[in-house]
Amino acid sequence: MPSLDARGVASLLREYAQRTALRGGNPYRAKAYSRAADSLAALAVPLDVLIAEDRLTEIPGVGDAIADIITKLHKTGSHPSLEKLRKEIPEGVLEMLAVPGLRPEKALRLYKDLGIASLAELEAAAKDDRIKKAKGLGAALQTKILQNLAIAKSGKGRLHLHRAAALLAHAQDSIRKARPELKRVTIAGDFRRGCELVGDLAIVAEAPEAVKAPNPSPADGLQIRLSDRKHFGATLLFATGSAAHIEQLQALAAEKGMRLNADGLHKGRALVAGEEAEIYRALSLPFIDPELREGRGEIELALKGKLPKLVTDQDLRGILHCHTDASDGTETLETMAKATRQRGFEYFGVADHSKSAYYAGGLSVEEIAQQYREADRLNKRFGKDFRILKGIESDILADGSLDYDDEVLERFDFVVASIHGRFKLDRKAQTQRLLRAISDPHTTIIGHMTGRQLQRRPGYEIDVERVLRACAKHDVVVEINAHPWRLDLDWRWHRAALEFGCMLSINPDAHSIPELDHMHWGVEMARKGGVPADRVLNAMKLPEITRYLRQKRRSLARAA
Fold first, then answer.
1. In this model, does residue 461 exceed pLDDT 90?
2. Cross-strand bridge partners of residue 445
């Protein structure tokens, strides 16, 4: 049998991970196999070369034990442990693990008790009410399956933005080391467009004309496209996409008597432009940032000279909505504030959980006072160039009220109002719940507005447009939660939020020091949604935001 390539081994390793999870073994081992499989799918160096040179452990997520498994799979196309697991459970059961919230032990029960052995059979059983009648399974599981089947189908084969970033960075580095003759090794595809879920791992590199491009890479693996210097920009443009954006550019080119192909913009036989910026310029367009290239009106805006100047990482001056060990974070207030300051920011907005969030160590009134005293002590030490802003993430209760009395809420510099429970309220009730919270004069920011978790659960049902209009009316800031599992509010609503007059805030929802760096993913989402820096709350400098928050509190006092 011929040896398997990286893609083939990745497929088997992913199967090994899934079957290990179903078997009820160590869950961390199954996750490790899955992460290693993702890394293999993005491999830029041939797998047989890495094996021959004993370099498998250079692959992210691959240690000695997994390296041995990979070698065995590569050489034989199988592994004794995998073959043993295959005898226990049909292949179709593995599909069911793609449904968020369906744990391996439940998938196994569905197979053994109800004979469900595929995703299609699972959907049919849920629609026929067979699951809720089964002992130990029930109506709640059936409802969750029906809700999350769409996520399972849409997210198949796609990686979270932050995970794709790590794999593509490794691939980039590997290519540069293995092929020093290649220049401008540039990441393209969904990732360059800032998509929250990445389906195509693509890299474009400039090669000497004598270097022949390799055969096209498999669609579900890393795609490496080579181009000469003359046509590099056009190749990058097409490799970035989206298809809709490219089609609209081609239509515009045709109107101008030109032809846009993957090798450049042509008029007759002459090459008019081969670099990205040149192509846009030749079409009488300003350069369109990759994040905007979705065919959602960006070309029309460009033609009218109304493209936004997108926010950047460098525009952000402070970090809001962060947690400490006072609730469910891992670090002290002092440690988190210092880490924020070390990253060049001017302020740190602490927003631990409120008292109803007992599961997250929500703060009592006494604990709030204690945190205030600590913040005051630290602020004296930091001086005028850095400040801790005193906030809270107040639970929005079922009736829409906030999770403290007015006299407590009035003490905070800012209040992030968020929903953390009662997700199953109907659309009308959930919308009204949010509207009441927004109308509360103490609310500064609405946190993770829809409650979604990517590839884990859908957001609760709300009338997003109505909620955004209310935020604009009551001067309540809309959060772009930068945690890579959330990225909420969805970027597809950002333009509407801007049009209604909303201010936005890019917040990491950080529970540890490394999570402070999630800010970057929030910036990516803001850019994709067309958000400029002057509409981002924490792009304000320290004097500006303190003045903004002070004025809001004064308005509150006058209203009282």
1. yes
2. 416, 477
